[in-house]
């Protein structure tokens, strides 16, 4: 088992879930194709990294929203307003879309802004992120 690959996958997934643009699916597919580690370890590293990246967004929303008018703030105001409206309408269950491109990261940030309790946040996000990586992994294995 390659611990370096798992750490790389963890880091890739962490960054992909943050407010920075990145993707982790190719790293996951490569680890699976090369059988760098057991299936469960690959899914675990990716899911944990991605979930903790989203937790970072929650923390940013919770504690750094008062900087939203600063030039360096990473989320544009109009995107933040759309995510707030979405979250106000669907509540914590909108976090099931935390895995989705474009909308997922802002939703996790807004959950922090709107003070979603961390325990429910982490549970729903971990479920969504893990399910996504399992699906991606199973699709990858069909073609590997």
Question: Oligomerization state of this entry?
Answer: single chain
Order of helices and strands: HHHHHH
Poorly predicted regions are none
Which structural class is indicated by helix and strand composition? mainly alpha
Number of helices: 6
Helix content, binned percent: 55-70%
* Overall residue-averaged pLDDT value: 89
Question: Globular, elongated, flat, extended or rod-shaped: what is the shape?
Answer: elongated
Proportion of strand residues: under 5%
Query: How many separate structural domains?
Result: 1
Output the radius of gyration: 16 Å
How do the strands and helices of this protein lay out in sequence?
Blueprint: H1 3-17, H2 25-33, H3 39-64, H4 77-90, H5 104-113, H6 118-143
Give a concise summary.
The protein has about 140 residues and is mostly helical.
Task: Give a description of the structure.
The chain is built from 6 helices and no strands. The protein has 144 residues and is an all-alpha fold. It has one domain. The longest helix is centred in the middle third of the chain and has 26 residues, at 39-64. The radius of gyration is 16 Å and the shape is elongated. The relative contact order is 0.16. The mean pLDDT is 89.
């Amino acid at each position: 088992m390659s611990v370096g690959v798992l750490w790389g996958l963890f880091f890739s997934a962490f960054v992909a879930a943050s407010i920075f643009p990145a993707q982790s699916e190719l790293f996951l597919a490569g680890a699976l194709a090369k059988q760098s580690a057991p299936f469960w370890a690959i899914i675990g590293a990716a899911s944990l990294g991605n979930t903790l990246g989203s937790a970072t967004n929650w923390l940013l929303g919770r504690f750094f929203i008062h900087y939203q008018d600063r030039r360096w703030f990473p989320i544009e105001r109009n995107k933040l307003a759309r995510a707030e409206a979405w979250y106000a309408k669907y509540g914590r269950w909108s976090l099931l879309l935390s895995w989705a491109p474009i909308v997922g990261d802002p939703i996790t940030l807004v959950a922090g802004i709107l003070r979603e309790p961390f325990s429910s946040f982490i549970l729903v996000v971990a479920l969504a992120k893990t399910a996504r990586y399992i699906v991606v992994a199973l699709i990858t294995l069909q073609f590997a």
